[in-house]
Amino acid sequence: GCGNSALSHDLHELGYTDVTSIDFSPACIAAMRARYARCPGLRWAVMDIRALAFPDASFDVVLEKGTLDVLMVEETDPWDVSPQAAAAMRRVLAEVSRVLRPGGCFISITFAQPHFRKPHYAQEAFGWSLRHATCGDGDAGAFHYFLYVMRKGQPLDPRDVALGRRL
């Protein structure tokens, strides 16, 4: 779900010249292709995050920024996520795990606090470790956001395994 974010272009400008971005919206992808046509290393594809059309182990890094939040938008109680939302999250995360190469990294940037999001990420079936950091500029009026980093092929901490069993 790249949407109309400039993140892909920003990464390109920082020297990451092999960036593939996806979104469910054909109009969005067409607009992004047109906007960044001068950047040959940026690729754009219309795709559903629940069924990625990429081969297994095709990426060193998968980065999502707020896309997974869409799966939780209709949830009324973050402490008690519906079976449908939990299943959708598992399906997407399983796809991310599938397309990551061994040693690859999944980075998730979200406003979702660790006590709500870590149980979803902490599933042994995904075959990755889990770390997180709280980010924000420290201003009293600013919201914190969270960075989660999963490394394919590294074990989960036993405490995270226990979190994952809650779902």
TrEMBL record:
Keyword field:
Methyltransferase, Transferase
Domain of life assignment: Eukaryota
Domain Methyltransferase type positions: 1-107
Q: Does the keyword Repeat apply?
A: no
Q: Which SUPFAM superfamilies match?
A: S-adenosyl-L-methionine-dependent methyltransferases
Task: Report the GO molecular function annotations.
Answer: S-adenosylmethionine-dependent methyltransferase activity
Gene3D superfamilies per UniProt: Vaccinia Virus protein VP39
Task: Kindly list the biological process annotations in GO that this record carries.
Answer: methylation
Q: Pfam families from the xrefs?
A: Methyltransf_11
Which protein family is named in the record?
Belongs to the methyltransferase superfamily.
Q: What is this protein called?
A: EFMT4 methyltransferase
Species of origin reads Falcunculus frontatus (Eastern shriketit)
